[in-house]
Design a protein that fits this description.
Length: 122
């Protein structure tokens, strides 16, 4: 069983940066792929980024490619989503999730954090 806790959200102006963290409990975290999703009011949850258990491969949504960077440190059971050049359309609740295999669909993930709010003002 893996429990996930996100942190690092907040209010930032357009063009600014935030770094989200996802702290995991459980000794098997290093075996899981990790994904980040976001959900804006009135919209479905959408894939943002994913990383394999080894950290060797990362995947991004087209909308964040080149602006967001996903990494993980299995030694401290934590994943990081660095978000640069933020835009108002990035405003959403951001969730981290864990699954055996990295995927772009929310249904593929078994474990979820509670989410952290990111608000980007124009």
């Amino acid at each position: 069983q893996v429990q996930l806790v996100e942190s690092g959200g907040g209010l930032v102006q357009a063009g600014g940066s935030l770094r989200l963290s996802c702290a995991a409990s459980g000794r098997t975290f290093s075996r899981y792929a990790m994904g980040w999703f976001r959900q804006a009011p009135g919209k479905e949850r959408e894939f943002v980024a994913g990383i394999r258990w080894s950290g060797g491969s990362t995947y991004y949504a087209d909308s964040v490619e080149g602006r967001f960077t996903l990494s993980r440190d299995n030694a401290v059971n934590t994943g990081y989503l660095q978000m640069n050049s933020l835009k108002p359309e990035d405003t959403a609740v951001y969730y981290c999730a864990a699954a055996w295999v990295v995927a772009r669909t929310a249904i593929s993930y078994d474990h979820w954090g509670q989410g952290t709010q990111v608000t980007v003002s124009s």
